[in-house]
Write a structure and sequence with these properties.
Layout (H helix, E strand, L loop, with lengths): L1 H18 L3 H11 L3 H23 L3 H9 L5 H7 L8 H28 L1 H5 L2 H6 L7 H25 L6 H28 L3 H24 L11 H7 L9 H23 L22 H30 L11 H11 L4 H33 L2 H6 L5 H33 L5 H31 L6 H12 L10 H4 L17 H22 L6
């Protein structure tokens, strides 16, 4: 009996070993592929948290200032939705954790999900997984390697986020709780992404599915923090579970177990599906188009057809987020109630403008940066078309290279403008529904959105120019977007010199309607965008394709 049991165990171990054969080689390969993007992402997380700590330490030094923060922004529904409840104001690390915590936790979840999809479904979509599997590699090895690489990334970021808080007054228990918030949410996102990568037939659908799950959790958690009757929503998603850990308070690690369970369950489901499905197959597939079409006689029609689903996905995400922001906008004015010093400072800075108007301007600026990121996504789509050989096929027709590049440049510009319009419309609709009025909100949103367009066009032009120089540089566009955000709308958090802030095109956007309109920066920004378009066009016409 004992020998039989040992034999069965040995067979099972042999099967598992076969299914995970050479996973270590794939882990090293995955680390090599992430050697640039992952370190940059880690550095960005650290910089954001360090800058937040620096700002908080300088602004809220006394107990009275901390209590005013808790009674003002901490009690405001808009800030509770974005950042969560401010229940602890001592030590400084608690304020830093509140200010950046849940937002960065959700951002880490999205990054981990995208890395997992990039290491699994993206590799399969490009045909690399089939080549790897042709060797002595187990069927579970690619997914296991991707999970290992993403878990290492999540672990490094989580340790960094916790360690930063130690000099700010956090004790060991608090640091462990913060680590658990980041790590457990990242692991849950990896589990969801592993399943999404197995059931989706394209990396785009897998990324959209996994990221939507993470962001939906962030929105549900925000609704729970805003309305007491919806507090139960915190228990429906990993972001809410992370909040329930309650660093600097209960330091309860049990909710993190739920996220770890999602990771384990997702890994098990993904492994079972991976063993039984064919390479390239999936449950969620793109709708197949007709075998032939008379409606695509020109490259312009083809480019629009290939790009419209991507643009619609961006538009849907930005509209939902803008709608929520607009819904919160009327309540932002409550910040100044009962705080005369805060009211005087804001009036000196804004003049006759309201705090609600400033909030709308700021958030629409963030959404304009998001709209510019669409250009990076489009550049990556162009890189995929070229890597798959489809761009070369198009260029074998009577289609000039310059025309091909300019067509996608126009699509990038029109798509970016469309996204800014969608963002402004969503904020106006949300503000109107919440009782903030319609005409004033529409006028302010139209003016603020219009002046953001030139800066957005600069980022889109840079992203497409990077692709024109070299397809692999398309990914660098994300660094440009993040830099434009950190040096532009978020530059005040870093106390940077003016020359550094001036590197972001969004720094030069006129502060309409608070300040009068200035035509000079608008003209200069449009000229800079045209310069990058011309440079990209000239280089693309001459470089080798494929």
């Amino acid at each position: 009996m004992t020998a039989g049991t040992a034999g069965v165990a040995g067979v099972r171990a042999s099967v598992v070993s076969h299914q995970l054969a050479h996973v270590g080689v794939l882990v090293r390969l995955g680390l090599r592929r992430e050697r640039i993007l992952a370190p940059i992402t880690v550095v960005l997380f650290v910089l954001i948290n360090v800058s937040t700590a620096q700002a908080i330490s300088g602004m809220y030094e006394t107990p009275q200032q901390r209590l005013s923060l808790q009674a003002g922004p901490g009690a405001n529904p808009a800030f509770r939705f974005l950042l969560g409840e401010l229940t602890h104001v001592e030590p400084t690390a608690a304020l830093v954790s509140w200010r950046a915590g849940l937002f960065l936790i959700a951002a880490l979840g999205v990054c981990a999900a995208m890395m997992t999809v990039r290491q699994t479904r993206k590799e399969e979509e490009l045909g690399r997984t089939e080549l790897v599997r042709a060797a002595a590699v187990g069927p579970l090895a690619p997914a296991a390697a991707a999970a290992a690489v993403a878990t290492l990334f999540v672990g490094i970021v989580s340790v960094a986020m916790a360690v930063i808080l130690l000099p700010l007054g956090a004790d060991a228990g608090d640091a462990v709780a913060v680590f658990a918030q980041y790590a457990s949410t990242g692991l849950a996102a990896i589990g969801v992404a592993l399943v999404a990568a197995q059931i989706a037939t394209t990396s785009h659908i897998a990324n959209l599915t996994a990221s939507s799950v993470v962001l939906l959790g962030y929105l549900l958690r925000g609704a729970a923090d805003t309305t007491d009757d919806w507090a139960w929503l915190r228990w429906t998603n990993p972001i809410g579970w992370a909040e329930q850990i309650d660093p600097f308070g209960n330091n309860d690690l049990l909710p993190a177990v739920l996220s770890v369970a999602v990771f384990v369950g997702g890994t098990a489901i993904a492994g079972r599906v991976a063993v039984h499905r064919d390479l390239g197959a999936g449950l969620i597939a793109q709708r197949r188009g007709p075998a032939a079409s008379s409606r695509l006689p020109r490259v312009e029609s083809l480019a629009v057809r290939l790009s419209r689903s991507l643009l619609l996905a961006w538009a849907a995400g930005i509209f939902v987020y803008a709608l929520i922001i607009g819904f919160m906008q009327p309540s932002v004015a409550d910040l100044a109630q009962g705080n005369e010093q805060f009211d005087q400072v804001m009036r000196a800075a804004l003049g006759d403008a309201t705090l609600s108007t400033l909030f709308g301007m700021t958030m629409l600026g963030f959404l304009a940066v998001a709209a510019s990121a669409w250009g990076v996504n489009l550049a990556e789509r162009l890189r995929a078309e070229e890597s798959a050989g489809r761009a070369e096929v198009v260029l074998t027709t009577p289609t000039a290279r310059g025309r091909y590049y300019l067509t996608y440049t126009v699509i990038g510009a029109v798509g970016g403008v469309t996204l800014v319009i969608v963002a402004a419309a969503g904020m106006v609709l949300g503000s109107g529904i919440a009782g903030g009025g319609w005409s004033r909100a529409a006028t302010n949103a139209a003016q603020t959105g219009a002046v953001q367009v030139p800066a957005m066009l600069v980022v889109v032009a840079i992203a497409l120019a990077l692709y024109a120089i070299r397809p692999s540089l398309a990914h660098v566009g994300w660094v440009v977007v993040v830099g434009a955000l950190l040096l532009g709308p978020l530059s005040g958090m870093f106390d940077l010199p003016q020359w550094a802030a001036d590197l972001s095109p969004f720094t030069h956007t006129p502060l309409v309607p608070v300040d009068p309109m200035r035509a000079t920066p608008i003209v200069v920004l449009i000229g800079v965008a045209a310069l990058f378009v011309t440079t990209g066009w000239a280089i693309f016409r001459r470089r080798q394709i494929g």
